[in-house]
Amino acid sequence: NAGVTQTPKFQVLKTGQSMTLQCAQDMNHNSMYWYRQDPGMGLRLIYYSASEGTTDKGEVPNGYNVSRLNKREFSLRLESAAPSQTSVYFCASVSGDLRGETQYFGPGTRLLVL
Amino acid sequence: GQQLNQSPQSMFIQEGEDVSMNCTSSSIFNTWLWYKQDPGEGPVLLIALYKAGELTSNGRLTAQFGITRKDSFLNISASIPSDVGIYFCAGLQGAQKLVFGQGTRLTINP
Fold first, then answer.
1. Of A88, A60, A112, whose CA–CA distance to B37 is shortest?
2. A:94-113 residues touching chain B, CB 8 A cutoff
3. What is the DSSP letter of A69?
4. Do A42 and B42 touch (CB under 8 A)?
5. Calpha distance B36→B51 (Å, rounded)
6. Looking at the complex, does the CB of residue B66 fall below 8 Å from at least one CB of chain A?
7. Which tens digits make up the pLDDT trace of A67-98?
8. Shortest alpha-carbon distance between residue A37 and chain B (Å)
9. CA dihedral for A88, A93, A97, A98, sign (positive or negative)
């Protein structure tokens, strides 16, 4: 039981390049989330998926797209990376919604956009 | 977007001292959560609060949900070196969206 896993752990991109951040969970959770963490800003929700086949925008969705490939996997794509997207990205999951549930976070992906 | 104001931003204390931090908001939340983040890791849930006025403990940690539902505090008693890290409050909006505070970085001098 690995919990929530993320790949890659580190990535350096040039402005305009694209990439996909991968996230997988083996806890049979329905809901999955993508956050970004910047210094002094806490974590901000980018997108979430309440169940397989559904996705919704969070607080800061611009410049990102997501895919809920199946119940286990929720990917985050940057089509044209910008320096403002330099951040640490966390994936998380929970069995239902957040009321009364523990949200499990992955170890994070550190992204630098030059 | 909605922001939670968390204070203090950082704390430098001696081992064995008690710690207190708090979060305030202009909006009402129905659930308050407190997380701890160690370097290079994701946040881990410490305490969840579901009712206004609720006081909950988890070992040396105690948290309260403010009566106005716009604030919460976290206390750590008799701090130890492994308490070092960043502590985040978070408020739940609806069923799926968490709003996080900016974090309190705790440093402990042995």
1. A88
2. 97-100, 102-103, 105-108
3. -
4. no
5. 21
6. no
7. 998 999 999 999 999 999 999 999 999 988 88
8. 10
9. negative
Q: Which residue has the tokens 């070196």?
A: B81
Q: Which amino acid would we find at residue B71?
A: D
Mean pLDDT for all residues in chain B: 93
Q: Which amino acid is at B1?
A: G
Structure tokens at A69: 């490939």
What does DSSP say about strands B5-7 and A104-105: parallel, antiparallel, or unpaired? unpaired
Asked if pLDDT for residue B63 goes beyond 60, the answer is: yes
Average pLDDT, integer, range B42-52: 92
Q: How far apart are CA B16 and CA B19, in angstroms?
A: 9
Rounded distance between C-alpha atoms, residue B38 and residue B22, angstroms? 19
Identity of the residue in A56, A97, A106 whose CB atom sits nearest the CB atom of B42 = A106
Within 10 Å of residue B1's Cβ, how many Cβ atoms?
9
Q: Is A56 on the interface with B (CB under 8 A)?
A: yes
Percent of chain A with pLDDT over 70: 99
Chain B hits for A102, Cβ within 8 Å? 45, 48
Tokens in use for B24? 């305030």
- Both structure tokens of A9: 């752990």
**Rg of chain A on CA atoms, in Å:** 13
pLDDT tens track for B98-110: 899 999 999 998 7
